[in-house]
Write a structure and sequence with these properties.
Elements (H helix, E strand, L loop, with lengths): L2 H17 L5 H8 L3 H13 L4 E6 L2 E6 L6 H5 L3 H9 L13 H12 L4 H7 L21 H13 L1 E9 L4 E15 L2 E8 L4 E6 L3 E10 L22 E7 L1 H8 L8 E4 L5 E7 L3 H8 L5 E5 L1 H16 L11 H6 L9
Antiparallel strand pairs: 1-2, 3-4, 3-7, 4-5, 5-6, 8-10, 8-11, 9-10
Helix pairs in contact: 2-3
């Protein structure tokens, strides 16, 4: 059994207990498709972990209940002023969740947190973004949060149920229906993604949630495979694949900036005598990598692999073509810098 199956099941039990006033072990076993013995072990493990679970008898039948104010211990423990202030201020650091299904819950949580502060304290802390501010990455999802689809995917993931979905493919620009065994939801690059097994192809694939046109849960169950903690550890984006060695030379003008940042855990940097920097990565050769390299323009040059260097060269050539003046006339570099008109000739 995958190591995450147990924690997913136990989280499902907590959600069931939270949603129901009381529930029996038999009910929990039926809803999670395991034996009552497994449920008893799960309940014991959750109690040992400190979750406020208890059983009570009604009409001769034993029910389990979750204390509704599960975090009331916070009232006894309490936050220090500095801790409370820091937590309240951190709402600016999660501003990148704007436009995601989590936005409403995060906003609600901080609204509740703010009630512990006096009006004067809130007014003071609300000025903090003038001193320190978080900025979301460009490309955040512009469509309305797919709350219903996300809820269904979470349920399917926890209960190991297959889903059928009609999906609009970006690469083929057409819709296709898939049967999917969802493993995990991931928020990255400004959007929400689901990774899962597609039985038709016998491989794991990643889908953008905002491109799901229709989704429905089935009663078919599946046994998930083991996934690493970070399913996209080898990609600069949200892709999977086999990593390979990538060598990129950055010109002196941008070399210091490159050295100052961690682009990927596998990175190694060598300095050259002319001030340039050679960056070596072991990552998936995907579009996320290509778009990142292209973002440096003429300040970066791919050394290896040769195939990637060729692709980047072709992309830059196509980009240059987009800036040709209508009718085929071109301007020299000096003319473009000085705003001079182009020669009256076609290039």
């Amino acid at each position: 059994m995958p190591r995450n199956a147990e924690v997913i099941r136990q989280w499902s039990i907590l959600k069931e207990l939270e949603a129901s006033r009381r529930v029996t072990i038999d009910d929990l076993a039926a809803r999670t498709s395991v034996t009552t013995r497994t449920i008893r072990r799960d309940l014991e493990a959750l109690q040992t972990a400190g979750f406020p679970l208890f059983d009570e008898t009604h009409d001769g039948k034993k029910f389990w209940t979750l204390e509704q104010k599960a975090f009331r211990r916070l009232d006894d423990t309490g936050f220090t002023l500095a801790e409370l202030s820091a937590l309240y201020f951190s709402r600016t650091l999660v501003a990148c969740l704007s436009g995601t299904p989590f936005e409403r819950d995060v906003h609600s949580a901080f609204e509740k947190l703010s009630t512990a502060l006096t009006p004067g304290m809130r007014q003071f802390l609300d000025r903090m973004p003038l001193v320190m501010q978080a900025k979301a990455e460009p490309g955040a999802q512009a469509t309305e949060p797919r709350t219903r689809e996300v809820a269904q995917l979470v349920e399917a993931t926890m209960q190991h149920r297959r889903v059928t979905m009609r999906y609009h493919s970006f690469s083929s620009n057409r819709e296709k229906t898939y049967v999917l065994e969802p493993y995990r939801l991931l928020f990255g690059q400004g959007g929400l993604y689901v990774i899962g097994m597609v039985p038709e192809y016998g491989e794991l694939r990643t889908f953008a949630v905002d491109r799901i046109e229709q989704l429905s849960l089935t009663e078919e169950r599946f046994e998930p495979l083991e996934l690493p903690d970070d399913a996209f550890a080898h990609s600069l984006g949200v892709n999977q694949g086999t990593p390979e060695r990538i060598d990129i030379v950055f010109k002196p003008k941008i070399a210091r900036y490159v050295r100052e940042r961690i682009w990927h855990p596998s990175q190694q940097i060598e300095d050259a005598s002319d001030g340039s920097a050679l960056l070596t990565l072991h990552v998936v050769n995907d579009w996320a990598l290509k778009s990142w390299i292209l973002g440096f323009g003429g300040l970066a040059r791919v050394v290896s692999p040769t195939s990637l260097a060729t692709e980047i060269s072709q992309e830059l050539g196509a980009a240059l073509g987009n800036y040709q003046v209508a009718g085929g006339t071109k301007r020299t570099v000096s003319q473009r810098r000085n705003g001079e008109p182009a020669d009256e000739r076609s290039g």
